[in-house]
Amino acid sequence: MSHRSIAIDGPSGAGKSTLAKDLAHEFSFLYVDTGAIYRTVGLAVFRAGIDPKNAAAVGAILPQLSITMGYEADGLQHMYLNGEDVTEEIRLHEISGYASGVSAIPAVRAFLLEMQRKLAREHDVIMDGRDIGTVVLPDAQLKIYLTADSGDRAMRRYRELLARGQSADYETVLRDVIQRDKQDMEREVAPLRQAEDAVLVDTTGVDLEGSRELLRRAIRERFDL
Ligand code: DC
User: Fold this and answer.
1) Which numbered atom of ligand 1 lies nearest the CA of 38?
2) 40 Cα to the center of ligand 1, angstroms
């Protein structure tokens, strides 16, 4: 039996993970956070002391990496790097830049592609990322491009960092958000862009519950749920 797939793409801080996780739970789909997979590669590169833009050096360590994911009793997607649970560590602010850097390297994307497609072959998935509707799951039954303006997204990210007990400064977070957007949209391989057949959902000025309702409606309409 073929499975149902929902692809949610968009820039960082648009609320993709929170919303995708909630809706996956509500509609009994498996939530797959693909950013976490890139973050795990970013962490490995950080630990190895490698420049994330050095494609040759990053490519050389890929064969030594075992990246796996599992769904634990807490309902969260846990990431494992060579067997070690790195779920928390990949969320550190400094790893975001490493994840963005390594994600521009074609060998890294090729290394992770099959892992993502396999999950969609085996489960009903809501998968979030940057290139899910354009590259990973071009045949997804529903594609959503979720965005909001950069100031709104930076404010959400800033609050999230504070809530996690990390120190943060809004101006720095905003600068990083703009820098990451640029890096993710201008890279040559699988740049962030809206798929032609994706539904655009802009959550600027819309709170979480409002955004959830917009997505819920799109899912119900598409799958008759
Ligand atoms: O969604 P996130 O912030 O956790 O993603 C971390 C980085 O990984 C982000 O800068 C872009 C990259 N990424 C990607 O290139 N393709 C994906 N499908 C998901 C994330």
Assistant:
1) 8
2) 11
- Give residue 173's pLDDT: 93
Ligand 1 binding pocket includes 35 (Cβ within 6 Å)? yes
Tokens of 175: 């600068």
pTM of the model: 0.91
* Ligand 1 centre distance from Cα of residue 177 (Å): 12
Q: Which of 38, 45, 3, 2 is nearest to 17 (CA)?
A: 38
Of 182, 154, 150, nearest to 170 by C-alpha is 154
The pLDDT tens digits for 18-46 are: 999 999 999 999 999 999 999 999 999 99
How far, in Å, CA of 62 to CA of 9, rounded? 25
Query: Do strands 5-9 and 142-147 pair parallel, antiparallel, or not at all (unpaired)?
Result: parallel
- Asked if 9 and 105 count as a contact pair (C-beta separation under 8 A), the reply is no
Within the chain, strands assigned E span: 5-9, 30-33, 67-71, 77-81, 84-85, 125-129, 142-147, 199-202
CA of 28 to the centre of ligand 1 (A): 24
Q: Which residues of the chain have pLDDT under 50?
A: none
